[in-house]
Amino acid sequence: MIEGLFDRAASIFERRFLKNAFLPVLLLGPAVAAPILMQGDRLSALVSWWNAQSLTVQFIALAGYFTISWFGAAIVSSQWRNIIRLYEGYPLTRLPTFFFARQAEERHRAARRRIIDSSVNADLAVYRV
Predict the structure, then answer these.
(1) What is the DSSP letter of 95?
(2) pLDDT (0 to 100) of residue 31
(3) Torsion of CA 115, 117, 122, 123, to 10 degrees
(4) Cα torsion for 125, 127, 128, 129, to the nearest 10°?
(5) What end-to-end distance do the CA atoms of the chain give, in Å?
(6) What is the three-state SS of 35-58?
(7) Contact 25, 72 (CB under 8 A)
(8) Is the separation of the CB atoms in 23 and 31 below 8 Å?
(9) C-alpha–C-alpha distance, residues 28 and 22, integer Å
């Protein structure tokens, strides 16, 4: 029975989803809140407020945080391709202010073409673009 439960949980929680989307979204809130709470006496006030809450309120708050994180991770995972394209700089090359990015990309393509076309690297001919 427990093995079937673990198999079902493994199918629900894809490793790629957990590492690339859920974990970063889950840790974003504490990573942003930690420096803010470290200033002054805010962290001890938050801890004392949290301890004053009932177990039910704490459970509902944690379940709500995990739920919000899960939906945020679903949004992030649905936009992986666009996020990768943004980090690669493709959308930014369309802007007129990124003239130098276009020049660098053209120079990179020309250098790549020279390397591929040279007789020394004939084995790279398979990778022509």
Answers:
(1) S
(2) 93
(3) 60
(4) 180
(5) 52
(6) HHHHCCCHHHHHHHHHHHCCHHHH
(7) yes
(8) no
(9) 10
